[in-house]
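Entry 14. Ran structure prediction on the chain below.
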Amino acid sequence: MSKQTPGHKARKRFGQNFLEDGHVIRRIVGAISPKVGEHLVEIGPGLGALTEPLLDAAGALDAVELDRDLVPVLRTKFFRHGDQFRVHEADAMKFDYHSLIEEGEQLRIVGNLPYNISTQLIFHLLSHARIIQDMHFMLQKEVVLRLAAKPGDNHYGRLGIMAQYYCQVDNLFLVPPAAFNPAPKVDSAIVRLVPYKTLPIVAKDVTMLQNVVRTAFGQRRKTLRNNLKPLMAAEQLEALGIDPGLRPERLTLQEFVTISDAITETN
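Output, structure tokens:
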């Protein structure tokens, strides 16, 4: 997440856009508000523009970086921090986040996520929600709108529903393309996800809930009657107090859980 240097060119295959706007960096760090003793994990630190103020504030940080050419650059840049700065050459999608924690500890995860893997990576991290205190990500604006969307919004769908099942989601602020080098073709935004310590709505089977939501949004323009036919008849939806003539984006998380639980109970 920093300005390019003559020695490293941003790689398109890694989705690299290095953040270089000092005002934006300070605003992100302010939103994260890192404290000494907290366990910070940065995904895709790039050349370390965000890493530096985070390390200075928290005193320690684990970085997960896929680009092997950046690993020695980061180790050299933050050599003075000794073993308080640990960089892991790894794919964030496959990395074992449990390996970083001691018993009772939780992670604060931050990162400028590549647009091409952001959705899959968020789903992966949600599976580790119980060991995560919070997450602050720079994402494509459209992805943040999907994460924070409410029923009836055009962006409301599978990603937002499942993120909001596990987390409180806050769309914090926009970041323009000019803040990066090279400048991406789209606006970015900062999002905060805070996993619930106690889920406000609990599904009997989360895998079934995911299946119901995925199936319901299989064809957005069609109604629940059509999309959920493989899982539940229209008459069964009516018996649950849900109108089968609605499109999926009209349903609340609670209503999706009600459908999921009813299917779970009959299986």
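Residues 12-195 form a domain with the Rossmann fold fold (CATH 3.40.50.150). Will compare against last week's run tomorrow.
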